[in-house]
Amino acid sequence: MPRTPPEASSENARRTMQANKRRDTSAELAVRRRLHASGLRYRIDYAADPTDRRRRVDIAFTKVRVAIFIDGCFWHGCPDHYVQPKSNVEYWRPKIARNMERDLQSVERLENAGWTVLRFWEHDDPDAVATSIAATVRSGGRNRPPDVGRPG
């Protein structure tokens, strides 16, 4: 099970992979713009878990302890949009499985530390996402609407 990324299968694949960002994705920016316009202030790329500073929350409302993740469909194995790559399957299948397991662990750790965790997919409507986040934040993180986010 190789953990080092394999050579790209083509020049186009190499350019695509190099263009991927860890933060400030278009989905994150769209939601953040709406949150800011609604008057909410937040931290980005926040290390909410002091035991693991490498795991970072996309958007954090530290005063009310609400952590937001906006997950890419490819990297986090979206059940609606994830397509297994045809090349280097022996690398990608366990890589995405590890990402999904880490997502579950991150939710569990943060919730155990008293955070309310909301996860969304990059394809979710940014207006609806921002509205759900704002409702949770304005309730002090206590009243999470039942249809908010995706399962951990």
Automatic annotation (TrEMBL):
Record keywords, A-Z: DNA damage, DNA repair, Endonuclease, Hydrolase, Nuclease
CDD domains linked: Vsr (cd00221)
One of the GO BP terms on file: mismatch repair
Region feature (Disordered): 1-28
Pfam families: Vsr
InterPro entries: DNA_mismatch_endonuc_vsr, Restrct_endonuc-II-like
Any one GO molecular-function label of the UniProt entry: endonuclease activity
SUPFAM superfamilies: Restriction endonuclease-like (SSF52980)
Bias type Polar residues, positions: 7-19
UniProt cross-references to NCBIfam families, sorted A to Z: vsr
Family listed: Belongs to the Vsr family.
Record-given protein name: Very short patch repair endonuclease
Species in which this protein is naturally found: Candidatus Brachybacterium merdavium
